[in-house]
Amino acid sequence: ERIYLRQKDSLHDQIAWDYGDVHYYEDANDGGPLTCQYVFVLDALNFCFWPTPEYVMEYEHLARGLKTAVLHDRSALDASRLANVTTETVASWFAPFHPPQLDERVWRLVSMAVRKVQELGAGLARFFDGLALNLVRASKFSAVECIRLVLAHFPGKPLRRGGAPMTWRWFVGFQDHAVYKGDQVFLYKRVQILVGDVWAAYGRHIVDMAVPSTHVVGGFYDIDRLTMFGTMLLRLLVCTQLCCGEFFMVGLVRL
Prior knowledge:
Blueprint: H1 2-11, H2 33-44, H3 59-72, H4 79-83, H5 87-92, H6 104-127, H7 132-138, H8 143-153, E1 160-161, E2 164-165, E3 177-180, E4 183-186, H9 189-201, H10 232-242
Antiparallel strand pairs: 1-2, 3-4
């Protein structure tokens, strides 16, 4: 908390969505739907990255690969195409990594990621007229409601091997939860990152429901209710600032 309070005034300006030319945001300033569609697909796949024989596949490769696909074909992320996406198409988004660079193990994981994209496309087509932005609009500027809508419409389906369900959270859409010491713990890490990314992509606007001029696409009045999730970088920061050897996840979203 002390670290946050020291940095909160400049926090929102430290890393912009367009930093490093990694993300797509061409229509964000106009409140267009393609940026939102891009963010949903990106974060549906933002669950794991894999080493190849010569390189390490990272988040920025997927972000840039998806951006390239959209710039080349603005219909590439249409819901109907996502619902029927192939393994080869998903693999092509991880530029510059393409078969045969992907080994057999990585290829299997990419094939599993196809399920998430297909679920996303089918859900958007069925419930939101094909547009992720319609889901965001349905949240009525509430980040927490946006999370609820994603969880309700994209529950995922666990894979099974030998009759037993596999428990890896990325196979069940955004519904990541676990049992800890007998209690069910709802993490919802990926969906909160998704909503935070939508907010960032459209300019990080804070909505005041009493001021209509602040009611902009991708803005939320309760973005501060999302969880902060710890990473190795956070651990290094905490240890450096507080000389603390423990690792904590701070904040809980109150759903």
